[in-house]
């Protein structure tokens, strides 16, 4: 693509050199630069891309996009200065990869909890309808039925646009995408055209990055503020921030709720460990999901599918065929008569949702044993809250390691224990070894009891001192049960 065409979506402050040259690739990582590439220097959270301009030129970059004008301008290299390189990178990448989101319906899902479930179930629903569909999620990315491994909830702008370009080229008519607060704040989604956005809920998370809940809220809200007039915004009325999210959007606003009058109204009629009987907009349906939080997630899927033009009755049939997402309320029955549930819950609110769902099915007829930890090098403020909520809603609590990363597991456990009072401590033990913690929970469980193993869900590893070791909660439980 000609550099002059590539720059049409942005407004450079100044340009030095020719724009009448062919650009063979765009990148923000100088190590991936090849001859004929445009290197875009971004200020990252860890490093500043401007420091790598000389390295990019050495590797063959013919043009440089940057915020700061370099002290030395190399002959034969075109330099483009922009006010905001984060914004410019997304828009330039979108142009280079053929503006993929203008060729399909892209729906973004944002919120603290439920993003993966809603995005994945929308992907499953539209594949059920016979469409080619793309998915960008925490668990895995898909180009129709082809898996593409994922490192982040929302990839960097280059990876993201390349992926969306491949989806468009392979004939995907729809794409569903988790939109993280980091990706909104860092403008990774700049330049993408959304057909719709869904807001799930907002509770404490990622404060290691955003510093305050208000900043976290603003990052989520920005997604809806920038939604085009042609799009829909579907928001959860059961969350106190539901209408805050959409108050400045130009898009058409729709609501869903399990409690209030809304465009898409739901109700849980019956609940078992095998599934629920629900009422959506006065239609009954049976699903294989458990818990009010999952009823809310399914209601969001129902609403979004209808807003994308599907008939209510057809969507309900599709929902009745769906299976829970890997690592989300994954129930395993023990020969001993107890049930173990593996769930990704790694925030206080997610833990409360899962534990309330368990109590909703048990109705006081069994005990709840919770195995829980917290990730290292992440928001420390949520650790005591997670321990407190676990103790409040469980009969026994075992605090253990999750992904300690570069922290000592015992330090994380101590942070969690600090949230407990004397009564909580009486029913709590700490076992740093996660395998031993799960084994202990299984030894304590009696017929009719439920064990919740929280925090890792679909993850099949433990990250310790920068190294990922194979560890799968579900595998561990099955080995112990057998």
Automatic annotation (TrEMBL):
Domain Mur ligase C-terminal: 327-457
Cofactor entry: Mg(2+)
Binding sites annotated in the UniProt record for meso-2,6-diaminopimelate: 378, 402-405, 455, 459
Binding residues for UDP-N-acetyl-alpha-D-muramoyl-L-alanyl-D-glutamate: 30, 153-154, 180, 186, 188
Enzyme class: ligase
PTMs per UniProt: Carboxylation is probably crucial for Mg(2+) binding and, consequently, for the gamma-phosphate positioning of ATP.
Catalysed conversion reaction: UDP-N-acetyl-alpha-D-muramoyl-L-alanyl-D-glutamate + meso-2,6-diaminopimelate + ATP = UDP-N-acetyl-alpha-D-muramoyl-L-alanyl-gamma-D-glutamyl-meso-2,6-diaminopimelate + ADP + phosphate + H(+)
Chief location category: cytoplasm
Localisation per UniProt entry: Cytoplasm
Mur ligase N-terminal catalytic domain sequence ranges: 22-97
Native organism: Bacteroides fluxus YIT 12057
Name of the protein: UDP-N-acetylmuramoyl-L-alanyl-D-glutamate--2,6-diaminopimelate ligase
Protein family per UniProt: Belongs to the MurCDEF family. MurE subfamily.
Example GO BP: cell wall organization
Function: Catalyzes the addition of meso-diaminopimelic acid to the nucleotide precursor UDP-N-acetylmuramoyl-L-alanyl-D-glutamate (UMAG) in the biosynthesis of bacterial cell-wall peptidoglycan.
Positions contributing to ATP binding: 111-117
Superkingdom assignment: Bacteria
Sorted UniProt keywords: ATP-binding, Cell cycle, Cell division, Cell shape, Cell wall biogenesis/degradation, Cytoplasm, Ligase, Magnesium, Nucleotide-binding, Peptidoglycan synthesis
GO cellular component: cytoplasm
Motif range (Meso-diaminopimelate recognition motif): 402-405
InterPro entries for the chain: Mur-like_cat_sf, Mur_ligase_C, Mur_ligase_C_dom_sf, Mur_ligase_cen, Mur_ligase_N, MurE/MurF_N, UDP-N-AcMur-Glu-dNH2Pim_ligase
The Mur ligase central domain, residue ranges: 109-305
